[in-house]
Amino acid sequence: MAECDDRPNLVERAVMKLGEPKNQARLLQVAWRISLLMMVIGFIIIIKTISPNFM
Asked: Main subcellular localization, coarse class?
């Protein structure tokens, strides 16, 4: 049978690492940049749909 040890597994370590403020700030920056990029792409799609000769 497998022994029970108190070392955290990979998932637990990842969750603890993501809980650190520095990593949360980095995740927020990445999420913000992705959302900004999606918004810009959306505007381009809307403009291209309304006026196909724009770009």
From this structure: membrane
Identity of the residue numbered 31: A
Model pLDDT, residue 1 = 45
Q: What is the CA radius of gyration of the chain?
A: 21
Question: Distance (Å, rounded) from C-alpha 11 to C-alpha 14?
Answer: 5
Joined together, the tokens standing for residue 42 give 């959306």
Residue identified by tokens 């990842």 is 14
Query: 0.85 cut: is pTM over it?
Result: no
Angstrom distance (rounded) from CA 15 to CA 28: 15
Return the pLDDT at 3.
Answer: 60
